[in-house]
small monomeric GTPase (Ailuropoda melanoleuca), 262 residues
Amino acid sequence: MRLIQNMCTIAEYPAPGSAAAAADCCLGAAGRRLVKIAVVGASGVGKTALVVRFLTKRFIGDYERNAGNLYTRQVQVEGETLAIQVQDTPGVQVRENGLSCGEPLNRCIRWADAVVIVFSVTDYQSYELIGQLHQHVQQLHLGSRLPVVVVANKADLLHVKQVDPQLGLQLASMLGCSFYEVSVSENYNDVYNAFHVLCKEGTACCTRRAVGPGKQSDDRLLTAAMGRCQTPSLFSHRWSSTHVLELEKTPSFPGDFFSERC
Ligand SMILES: Nc1nc2c(ncn2[C@@H]2O[C@H](COP(=O)(O)OP(=O)(O)OP(=O)(O)O)[C@@H](O)[C@H]2O)c(=O)[nH]1
């Protein structure tokens, strides 16, 4: 239910490519640059757990299924305070003729500046979805290469592992994405690193959209300046002490950013 409410609000967002969207896409509350992140993947892979862990540092263990909540936070990236919105989504279903992504999910992907695609190392089918999901995401953002991070979750469940992390790394590398193997339940740092690199890439992508397709040399300079991470890395991202996640003392309410705006 909450997802539908959030998606309706997203639907009211200015159409991608419109002047309003270009002006709007980079500014959040208090005029901060805004990065919108969608978290997608099969059901039960730990999407909600991942988002909650990133935002609160906590692993609760039991989550409302298909929560589809939208969360807002501020993070510091390269010394700049950014507003980020993270949209949790319901698990993608697989049908005989391919992925089944409903319009609400598609809207969410179109809305996003960056996407986290999650699979579980305990679920081979969730891994098999990654390629299709990545293709779907890029199709919905034709003309701009959306930053995507592939996250392999549940690394702690060694005894029921079905996917070697190397496979995830290879696939991510083929797709041109960064890759992180994480255990949401046991390790916060890897979760943080995955989102952090995406915030950096998402900022660059968002700014490119605002600058517009006609300014490609600016675009290249900007990408270089932002130090966009192109190389997939396994356990390799380390952040300096200036990369601090600012966590609010109290959890924000899902969808609050959009409620404030509307
Ligand atoms: N052992 C272990 N369990 C995890 C981990 N991450 C998530 N889980 C568990 O996996 C189950 C599913 O997690 P969710 O976060 O609800 O998964 P989801 O992808 O949001 O699921 P849907 O809402 O159905 O799409 C929960 O019981 C979590 O506690 C992890 O890193 N390790």
Summary: The longest strand covers residues 80-88.
